[in-house]
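User: Please predict the structure of the protein below. I'd like the answer in structure-token form so I can feed it into my own downstream comparison script.

Assistant: Understood. Taking the following sequence of 402 residues as input:
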Amino acid sequence: MSDTANGTGAVDAAALRRRTRELLAVHPVDSTGRTDFLKARFDAGLAWVHYPQGLGGLGAPRSLQAVVDAELEAAGAPDNDPRRIGIGLGMAAPTILGFGTEEQKRRFLRPLWVGEEVWCQLFSEPGAGSDLAALGTRAVRDGDTWVVNGQKVWTSSAHVARWAILIARTDPDAPKHRGITYFVCDMTDPGVEVRPLRQITGEAEFNEVFLTDVRIPDAHRLGEVGDGWRVAQTTLMNERVSIGGMRIPREGGMIGPVAKTWRERPELRTHELHQRLLKLWVEAEVARLTGERLRQQLVAGQPGPEGSGMKLAFARLNQEISGLEVELLGEEGLLYDDWTMRRPELVDFTGRDAGYRYLRSKGNSIEGGTSEVLLNIVAERVLGLPSEPRTDKDVAWKDLAR
């Protein structure tokens, strides 16, 4: 496939359109298998154009991804089912890109983006949820491998994942933030046990994961030994952007179903509900536009703490909107479609009924960072307010009270 650079060596929109049309000509949508097409797209540098050449990109501005996506959507090309592989795309990939070796990048990024390998995140623990740096899962070096023992919890997609991003305690004598190392864990290792966690919705979207003498090659370590907390910050900031800053159309997301019901069911309307709906509609639109601005800021670099604010808004709005929807529907809002125990691969807010949205949204203020922790991050790192006292900051992890 031809080069796409203009005379200055930069990749522009016209060059990307030309390259995309070349891809479609060589791999027609109607006669090319889905996986084969996605692999060809990755190899053409059109997966995520801002990534380096050879890793699914062309070193182009992130903003130009929309040019490629529009051409492919118009042609009816398949996507990589981003909701199913969201953890890989939104969290694992940027971390691997930022801290992985060249060998790691080439091994993991292509099957991750194509969707051949699903990823999960082994961060939270029963005793280290909001205070993630207090985690106790241990990794002990044994030659060229690390032996890992511990328990993780609230792990989405663990039941279908091939790989996991994992942080573990490698130096209990260091303060809690400085004794952590970041790894890529093979979920097929015999020491990995995944158990479902049934939720208030009736299904088990989350899991708890037990790690017993799991052996991870040192070649699967991301970043330096003991520098895992810094590496994890890249994961967490990208996670909050991917949760709170996802691209949606006007009236997309949770506000869509309730607005549709309002228009189609005039008999349900009251003045008080109308006022609440108007307020939440405006707030949802402000959040959507703020998310668009945040994505534009990403063109200039990595996500910052501002993503925490977006994730906060996402959680609050989902809970308030779903509560309004249940009230609007009255007795119908108390119905629930299916309590069958299932282990879904993704969360489908808009494809289920109002009762599901109401119950599932309760987790939005916990997952991806609790709202209380995110408020502290916004206060300290966005608004510049004084930090909360942290008396354990320089205390060795092994000496912390438990």
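That's the full token string. The CA atoms of residues 5 and 246 lie 29 Å apart.
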